[in-house]
Amino acid sequence: MARAGINRARVEQAIINLKKENRYPSYQLIRQYLKNSGSYSTIGRLVRELKEENPALFGEQVDIPDAILKTVNVLSGQLRAEARKEAEQTEKQFLEAADEQEKLYKNLHKEYDELHHAHQELQDQLAEKTVHEDNLNQCLQEKNIEIASLKTEQKNCEKNLDDKTEQITTLEAKFDQLYQQHKHYQEASKQERDTLRAAHERQLTALQNEIKTLKETVAGKLEEISFLNNDNVRLTSELNATQRELQDKKDTNKKQAQEIKELQAKNEALENRRSELEKNLNNTQNKLQNLSEQQNSLQQTIKQLKSDLDKAGSEINTLSPLLNEIQELKAMIHQQNKTRQKKG
């Protein structure tokens, strides 16, 4: 990723400005133009992208620079203009001399000497321009050699950049491999966590169902005990009423002795019934005590399961610092257990 402040637009503008200055847009000059911001690899990547999209931007010319051509053209035009002017003047003087040959012979000879001297000066100037042009050609050759050297250096830099790119590709492949291993480890941990949670939920559901069944059984036994107690009270009341009635009948009528015996027999039967009811009551109380003990045992089992679940959560927590979701799930399960206990 390019650094802050480095983008294709700025790199393209730097290349255009360097081209206008007749300077080859090397990575170093581009970076200097950008005030030493951005790395060479980033600049190289952006330059390659621009070269692919706009090859004309990097048109490499090894011809004579425009400044030299312009100078040569100006000098050549000046020479042609001066030569044309002198030729016109010479032709005019020649025509005048033809009309006045005798009269102006000496003047014409003098003017011819002057023209010859001017022509010699022009030849000297042309020779100087030729020497200057040769010097310019030599400088051009030196620049071409320098450009070839810079191209060689550019190829070496591009080769080094390709090597760095290959190294980066290798590192990215290793990173992808490590990422896939980490992802596989997360999926395995999640699957194991889901398995433990499902097993815990099944055990918790079974325990809750068993507790619900026991509570219903206890409620039924309590209703039966309540019914037996009411029946016992009713029988006691009947027994007391019968005893009072027997006592009254003993005092009032001896003829009712047989009835009293029958009532006594009935009383004995009621006593037996009462004994049986008390025995059933004791048995029911014992059953209630056993159910209470079973409930306590189930509560201990639930506590043990919670302890095992906490241990399992601790073991999962120590596997990797990257598995923070397991702790959140453990807190969620713990909260659900509290909620379910409150609802139970």
TL;DR?
The chain is mainly alpha-helical and 344 residues long. The protein contains seven helices and no strands.
pLDDT < 50 runs, ≥5 residues = none
Tell me the distance between the termini. 58 Å
Work out the strand percent. under 5%
What is the H-and-E element order? Answer: HHHHHHH
Shape, please?
A: rod-shaped
At CATH level 2, the architecture of the largest domain is Orthogonal Bundle
Largest sheet: none
Mean pLDDT: 79
Number of H/I helices: 7
Rg over C-alpha atoms, rounded to the nearest angstrom: 60 Å
CATH class of the largest domain: Mainly Alpha
Structural class by SSE content: mainly alpha
Would you kindly provide a written description of the structure presented here, covering whatever features stand out?
The chain has 344 residues and is mainly α. It folds into 3 domains: 8-58; 66-179; 185-343, Orthogonal Bundle (Helix Hairpins), CATH 1.10.287. The protein contains 7 helices and no strands. The chain has helices at residues 8-20, 27-33, 40-53, 66-99, 105-252, 257-317, 324-343. α4 (66-99) packs antiparallel against α5 and α5 runs antiparallel to α6 (257-317). The chain is rod-shaped. The two termini are 58 Å apart. The model has no long low-confidence stretch (mean pLDDT 79).
